[in-house]
Amino acid sequence: MVWDADIYLLDILIFRSLVLAAAAFFICKYTSNATRWFLSILLCSLVLTVIFADSYVCRSWLLNIRRNGWGRVDLNCNFLEEQPVPATQEDRRDLICCCLEEPLPGIPSFNYEKPNMMKPARSEVMTVTPWLAPVVWTGTYNRGILNKDFERKNYTIGLTVFALGSYWKLLKRFLESADKFFMVGHKVIYYVYTDLLEKVECTTTQTDRKCKVYKMSTIDSKIRVFMKRMEMLQLHIKTKVIDVQYLVCADVDLVFHDEVGVEILGDLVATLHPDFYKYPRGGLTFERRESSQAYIPKTEGDFYYQANFFAGTPQEIYRLTKTCDQAIKTDDLKGIIAVFHDESHFNKYLLHHKPTKILSPEYVWRRDLHMQPEIKTVRIIHGEKNL
User: Cα–Cα–Cα angle for 103, 107, 108, nearest 5°?
Assistant: First the structure.
């Protein structure tokens, strides 16, 4: 037998309405005018009380049904799917009473220090851009809070990497460091692209991770590699080969050196270049030739971003890679190669489509750079090729 909560609530309301109607008839027929007005007001108050009480009881009862596994319901007293539930009136009444005594299910508590509005986490660096995008530095977030929220959503993160030509030798080191430091405790899928399928071994030591390898044709020109990367990413996102909630794109010559977690995720996330994050606008190495699709005038530009580590939702990464791919191919037809290849087109895109989050240079640093006082934790190291 299936018990429909809406019908049960309607039965209660009809029965009580008949009782109240009989009371109203008695008041009108057998009482004086003064008494009639007093009892009428009292009766109206009782009607409203009964209606609200029934709504509360029904809602509480339904939540208890959900907690005990008797069916999926919403908070408007509607079953989302029909399931057998206690059929007798006594069982229903006991269930309602039990529900009223139990607290509603909630999120498990998590203790942490209260944020202080008058004490910024970092005062020596920019933590919010003029377009209100957060800039992520060590000390500006609580990863425990972020992990709690992320775990409830049960998301999967994709990590793409291209291991073409002799760069396949760097893949093992890249994946081992990712296993150790990238999105620890969360579901991850590695998407590996290579032209040397027989030499590539894509393995992971983590049970919550998968590794998928895709064959690419051999590409001799480094410029063609950049073009092919943008083309392949947009194609695989469009055809759902890449099907995750967030996508992180990284170069194979990166090495994860410290924990990189969900704090890096957002709709469209870019990383500040460690060479140029302190430079004025005129010192940024944008493409300055007007003939290139990557052209940025000297009077424009926010920051210089590196294209070796970026992230976002698949939808935003698709728009970015498609736009950059089209711009690179347009330049190629004119015999133009942007000054820093795909990175120049990447920066042009982000000038007009502002990132929703920016990662500090802590997230991709180089060993040959002098350590700066604002760099508290180097999380990823770039440039260690050793081919």
Answer: 95
Whole-prediction pTM? 0.72
Sheet with 268-272: strands ordered across: 135-136, 357-359, 268-272, 305-312, 246-250, 156-163, 187-194, 209-215
CA distances to 19, 40, 150, 154 from 245, rounded to whole Å, are: 55, 59, 11, 10
Is residue 343 flagged as an active site residue? Answer: yes
Cα–Cα distance for residue pair 86/3, rounded to 1 Å: 8
Residue among 314, 306, 311 at smallest CA distance from 362: 306
With tokens 């060590």, the residue in question is: 138
Please report, as a single letter, which amino acid is at residue 306: Q
Contact 232, 201 (CB under 8 A): no
- Could you report the per-residue pLDDT of 37-90, keeping only the tens digit for each? 666 666 666 666 655 555 555 555 444 544 454 444 444 444 444 445 455 555
Rounded distance, CA 291 to CA 336, Å? Answer: 8
Q: How far apart are CA 129 and CA 302, in angstroms?
A: 9
Tens-digit pLDDT profile for residues 265-319: 999 999 999 999 999 999 999 999 999 999 999 999 999 999 999 999 999 999 9
* pLDDT, tens digit, 9 for 90 and up, residues 196-254: 999 998 888 888 999 999 998 887 766 677 778 888 899 999 988 888 999 999 999 99
Nearest CA among 379, 304, 383, 384 for reference residue 346: 304
Among the listed residues 300, 343, 362, 374, the single catalytic one is: 343
CB atoms within 10 A of CB 328: 27
Q: Which residues make Cβ contacts (< 8 Å) with residue 86, sequence separation at least 6?
A: 3, 70, 92, 95
